[in-house]
Amino acid sequence: MASIDSMNALLVDELRDIYDAEKRLTKAIPKLAKKATNDELRSALEEHLDETEQQVQRLEQAFEHLGESAKAKPCAGMRGIIEEGEEHVGEDYDDDDLRDAVIIGSAQRVEHYEIAAYGTAIAHARLLEHDEVVGLLEESLEEEKNADKKLTEIAESVVNLEAANEDEEQSGSRRRFSASSGRSTAQSQGRRRSNSRR
Length: 198
Description:
mainly alpha, Ferritin
């Protein structure tokens, strides 16, 4: 493992980490999109896949500006987030809206991780006055923020509401069943009492 002996070396290390994260996402996002049943959610994921592929290219340009080879360093954080997301999405759900809600949560964990990673790298690139690199990273950061915002809008306006409505319908039918069971029990007890008086 190479030692990090300067802020420049730290920046390169951070970019290699992000580079690995973005490359992993080019494989993970299509799996989420395939599992999504809400059209708006699937479309948002597919659109962000295109952006992720552009972000990979921007990182390659950033390495070029820094005179470094575009090499990935295994990103344990992103690997863990992706694995956790795949595990949750693979669970059995009674309703597709519940799975879509989980997909959104998993995708937003990814976005928040990336927002933090890009923000740190931008701060270090700015400190080192690598203006071209700052510009490239800021473009990707803006896309991550927009993707996160869009996922929130889909969750709040459609998916979470539909998943919650499904819960209400199920608990409503359970209440109706309990109430009708209670009536039939009371009726049968009443009949038994009147029969015993005869």
